[in-house]
């Protein structure tokens, strides 16, 4: 049962091969048995899950047959869930039980999904290795001495290990696509504004976007269809109809123009990853696509710009964690300033403090023009690169990451070297365009991802191309040994 | 320009982050490494380029000026560290 994709589960539930309750019990058993090796869950909501599963079975018995009715999933622990701990993997949210559900949680629950729990992540989604969690690092099921990527590392590890068929994640600089790549999964970061951010604890508000992590493009299409849509409660939500992503999957690729940016294949890329990526390109050509070399000349400026914009916005967003209204408060504060400083100093981990300080500095008097404003100008240059490229091609393709999963601890004391791993993913966040990572094979037994980027709101195109590739390849069906 | 210990102390104060004495040297070094990475930005020619604040360049949506929220005080205060009579408690501010 645990090997089934969401689409297969939908068919099996419809055919009454098993009930949603039986399926959830099976997966909850696997989580109990296997997750101690991975640490992918922060909270398992067993009782609530079984209630939801029984409710889904009852809805089905009364004639409903939605594709996600009874489908077990889990949420990254920065989506607020009513009455259940939402920790953002931070000590500062100790005991925080949100008084409401995030819109994404609400929409998926309405579609009948069963939530098995809340998934580990980098603290406040700041990291690329899932090592900054207050609840401990997550291990990669393909090699438990290695990181699963981050920040949605728990989502990726749990899906890769077949503890759940799919999960939600969020992506501010690659936090869905990079862990998906390092664990042999398909993950989609939608266009900025496509998925509501309401109830999704903010890191960098002009970059954050929620999306699905699953094993196939088809499953991502199923989930995105339920997650996406206008939400009046999110002031940056876009009021535009949601495409039929399932219908888009089966479009032929004849005539598809794919651009290969030379900057994605230069120094720093593991040549074995380049080989895997180019092999995917060959397959897509057989399916009717044509290929063109392109250039995104400002890509090299993306990391500096990102590490100004994201920390600046984070320093503002995270000012709400003050030890007064919710979460952790220090012992015996002497005065109000002591209360703020010690609650925050003790409640935030090292990486979060670093980013708050970088952001505070960048926004402080006298530095705004040199940092934040400069970064926003570079942001436009990056967007302009994409607009120019999409005048020539329909889709951009390249590696998702320069290297496969690294060893736990390897970059833990060197944040700058970890930041450089984000090079291929952060441009999509800066420009706000959608991006998808899908399995492209293995290097020394470790998964490799290929990234597809499309113009605004063309999530359907990304899912279409990934689905067509997954019809002629079987990388996405490989399971890590022991899971 | 490299940050010195006093800069780091000032930034930590602005951010209301308590930093232990032992954390300051390491924090200073790491912040300088990060700022070194960021400073590569200064070499980019951005003359005449308009800053981009929102990827889709939309402005804040407006809504009718009517009350849409109900009172959630009890729910919100149920998860607060210290409350009394519907008020959030903090150390004495005015002597």
Salient structural properties:
heterodimer, A: 483 residues, alpha/beta, Amidase signature (AS) enzymes, eight-stranded mixed sheet, three-stranded mixed sheet, 37% helix, B: 95 residues, mainly alpha, Histone, subunit A, two-stranded antiparallel ribbon, flat
Question: Could you please describe the fold and organization of this structure?
Answer:
The complex is a heterodimer of chains A (483) and B (95). The radius of gyration of chain A is 21 Å and the shape is globular. The longest helix of chain A is centred in the last third of the chain and has 21 residues, at 369-389. In chain A, the strands form two sheets. In chain A, strands 4-6-5-10-11-9-7-8 form an eight-stranded mixed sheet, with helices on both faces. A three-stranded mixed sheet of chain A has the order 1-3-2. Chain A has 483 residues and is of the alpha/beta class. Chain A contains 16 helices and eleven strands. Helices cover 37% and strands 13% of the residues of chain A. Chain A has helices at residues 6-14, 20-34, 46-61, 103-110, 153-160, 177-182, 217-227, 245-248, 271-286, 302-317, 336-347, 350-363, 369-389, 415-420, 426-431, 459-471; strands spanning 41-44, 72-76, 114-119, 166-170, 186-189, 210-214, 257-261, 290-294, 395-399, 435-443, 446-453. Chain B has a domain at 5-41: Histone, subunit A, CATH 1.10.20.60. Helices cover 32% and strands 4% of the residues of chain B. Chain B is mainly α and 95 residues long. Chain B has helices at 5-14, 24-38, 73-77, and strands spanning 83-84, 87-88. The two termini of chain B are 42 Å apart. Chain B has three helices and two strands. The interface between A and B is large, with 72 and 52 residues.
């Amino acid at each position: 049962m645990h090997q089934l994709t969401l689409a297969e589960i939908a068919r099996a539930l419809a055919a009454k091969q098993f009930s949603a309750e039986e399926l959830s019990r099976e997966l909850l058993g696997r989580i109990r048995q296997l997750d101690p090796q991975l640490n992918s869950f922060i909270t398992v909501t067993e009782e609530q899950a079984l209630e939801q599963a029984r409710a889904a079975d009852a809805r089905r018995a009364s004639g409903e047959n939605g594709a996600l009715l009874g489908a077990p999933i889990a949420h990254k622990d920065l989506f607020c869930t009513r009455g259940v701990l939402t920790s953002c993997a931070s000590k500062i949210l100790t005991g925080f039980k949100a008084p409401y559900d995030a819109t994404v949680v609400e929409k998926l629950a309405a579609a009948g999904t069963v939530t098995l729990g809340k998934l580990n992540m980098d603290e406040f989604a700041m990291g690329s290795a899932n090592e900054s969690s207050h609840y401990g690092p997550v291990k990669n099921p393909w090699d438990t001495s290695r990181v699963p990527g981050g920040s949605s590392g728990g989502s990726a590890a749990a899906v890769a290990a077949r503890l759940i068929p799919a999960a939600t994640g969020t992506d501010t600089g690659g936090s869905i696509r990079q862990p998906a790549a390092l664990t042999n999964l398909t993950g989609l970061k939608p266009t900025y504004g496509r998925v509501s951010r309401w109830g999704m604890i903010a890191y960098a508000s002009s970059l954050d976007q929620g999306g699905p992590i699953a094993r196939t493009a088809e499953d991502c299409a199923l989930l995105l269809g339920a997650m996406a849509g206008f939400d009046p409660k999110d002031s940056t939500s876009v009021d535009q109809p949601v495409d039929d992503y399932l219908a888009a999957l089966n479009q032929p690729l004849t005539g598809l123009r794919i651009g290969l940016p030379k900057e994605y294949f230069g120094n720093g890329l593991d040549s074995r990853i380049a080989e895997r990526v180019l092999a995917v390109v060959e397959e897509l050509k057989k399916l009717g696509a044509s290929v063109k070399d392109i250039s995104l000349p400002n890509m090299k400026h993306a990391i500096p710009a990102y590490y100004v914009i994201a920390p600046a916005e984070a320093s503002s967003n995270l000012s709400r964690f003050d030890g007064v209204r919710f979460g952790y408060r220090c012992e015996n504060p002497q005065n109000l300033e002591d209360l703020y400083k010690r609650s925050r100093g003790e409640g935030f981990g090292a990486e979060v403090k670093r980013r708050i300080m970088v952001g505070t500095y960048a926004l402080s008097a006298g530095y705004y023009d040199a940092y934040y404003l400069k970064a926003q100008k570079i942001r436009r240059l990056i967007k302009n690169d994409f607009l120019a490229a999409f005048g020539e091609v329909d889709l951009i393709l390249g590696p998702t990451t320069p290297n496969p999963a690294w060893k736990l601890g390897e970059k833990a004391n060197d944040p700058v070297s970890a930041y450089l791993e984000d090079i291929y993913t952060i441009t999509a966040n800066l420009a706000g365009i959608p991006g998808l990572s899908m399995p492209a094979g293995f290097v020394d037994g470790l998964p490799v991802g290929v990234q597809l980027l499309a113009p605004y709101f063309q999530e359907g195109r990304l899912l279409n191309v990934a689905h067509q590739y997954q019809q002629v390849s079987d990388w996405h069906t490989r399971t890590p040994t022991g899971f | 320009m490299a940050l010195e210990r006093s800069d780091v102390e000032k930034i930590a104060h602005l951010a209301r982050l308590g930093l232990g004495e032992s954390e300051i040297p390491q924090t200073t070094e790491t912040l300088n490494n990060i700022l070194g990475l960021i400073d590569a930005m200064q070499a980019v020619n951005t003359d005449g380029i308009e800053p981009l604040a929102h990827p889709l360049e939309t402005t804040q949506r407006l809504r009718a000026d009517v009350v849409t929220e109900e009172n959630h005080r009890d729910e919100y205060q149920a998860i607060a560290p210290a409350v009394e009579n519907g008020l959030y408690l903090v150390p004495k501010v005015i002597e």
